Amino acid sequence: MKYKNSYHKYVFALVTLMAVTISCSKKFSERIPINAPTDANFWKNETEATSAVAGSYATLRIAMNEMGMGHYYYGDTQTDQFVARTNGEDYPAITQIQWQTFVAPSQTFRALIKLRRWDNFYRAIDQVNRCIKYIEPIPLANFTSVDKQGAKNALIGENYFLRAFTYFYMSRIWGDVPLVLETADDAAAAPNQPRAKQVDVLNQCIKDLQEAIKLLPYVTAATTTRPIRANRGTCYALLAHIYAWRGEYDKVAPAADSVINNGGYSHVSRATRASYTAMFKGNSSEGIFEISQNAANEGSLITANYGDINNSIAARTLKSPYLLTQLGNSLFTLDAGTLTTLFPNNADSVDLRRRNGFDFWGTTDPICTKYANIVYTGPNNTSPLSQNNIIVFRLADIKLLKAEALAALNNPSGARTIVNEIRALAGLGATTATDANMFEEVIQERGRELFIEGHRFYDLVRLARKTGIIRFNGTGTITRMTSTDFNLGKYYWPIDPILISLNPLLTQTPFWADKM
């Protein structure tokens, strides 16, 4: 991608500094930054390579935190989990799937412009491409780990995973996206590229993951760094999701089994599940891939770099007594009708997810308490910080993805076994869904288990593709998506016109082409 402002050296300097201050663990972040790094004086040894890889994670973290909670804007707020907003600057457009709404190009601070742009994702891609290019030539003699080749392989493999993940993430949002596999010495002079077909982008993701799997080991010990740095289990989890998105369900179960059987992951205990805040702080035995931001220093940097607590998922979904600075209703209202469907009233005293993951049940403003890991850094409970990792993939997710695949492949009994396993963890008995409705039941179980974890929108896309059932609208009066809209591809975001003005080779996402 070509941008009119050159950010290439600036981003590298920034992410190298971030590798010291906000990366994935204390050990991972204790690296000495170079104040003005260039390719000529950097990339000399393992310490510098590790700092650069930490920068890859850091830039991805910025992209997923667009407007403080981009991951949830893309994955949750425009689904049946939430009431469609009718007030606020850009929130009605975002939550009603009116993504074409005009915003003056000069108002680049606006949420709708930021969410329609992919700049930060391509900054992450460029950092990854730099790591892939420059780590390989570093001599093994300059690595200090006992297993020098293993350490080098891991750093390169992590970047192949991150490139695959970032392109998959973008493909689910925009469909076709430019495919950039080389870093440019001068980003301002890099040639423009058109949007590549999604099938080609995802094929590249699979190719990158196959390379990463060769380079990365499984990490079977449940350490604090396991879910926040890629390993072989992380790669297979992403493969399972890519195949499910493509509808290649025969390939989902083998990839999922590689995670389930070999990754060393385990479900957290029922006692831990009774307190959802413990799981969603991050680094649990169930975590497969997470974006790290649960430490005190990371929380403070979220305030500095992504907007304060008012822009986080915690601030948007909590209220007092879980967030003492929000005395009124929560800012984003959950759809009470959807909650009743997902968690029937007769499960009130049984389902641990409902009993311990929600409050104000039965009111017009119920809330989910998953993200209630709040600390207050000012006097009298002021200056709150949210300390929750973004839980991207976890074991229950991958098991239910396997169940989805089995249901799609006419194996409802196999799907039922997995669904019942997840229900048992929540204290529930066996599902009563018929074999004919098992695919839909798996999606609904994912809705119960993975509520506000960034999955719901994509789960509903797969549900609609497979069964024709449209569930985006919830129980409100606003129609977000019709079957006709869906079949025309409304679920892919438009790109902001600013991007097209910067790169005339870009074309608008088809559904939105005549609407912007």
From TrEMBL:
Alphabetized, the UniProt keywords read:
Cell outer membrane, Membrane, Signal
InterPro entries given for it? SusD-like_N, SusD_RagB_dom, TPR-like_helical_dom_sf
Instruction: Cite the SusD-like N-terminal domain residue spans from the record.
Output: 74-243
Cellular location of this protein?
Answer: Cell outer membrane
Which Pfam families has this protein been placed in? SusD-like_3, SusD_RagB
**Superkingdom classification of source:** Bacteria
Where's the RagB/SusD domain?
Answer: 364-512
Gene Ontology cellular component terms for the protein in this record: cell outer membrane
The Swiss-Prot or TrEMBL record describes its family as follows: Belongs to the SusD family.
What is the name listed in the Swiss-Prot or TrEMBL entry for this protein?
A: Putative outer membrane starch-binding protein
Species annotation: Sediminibacterium goheungense
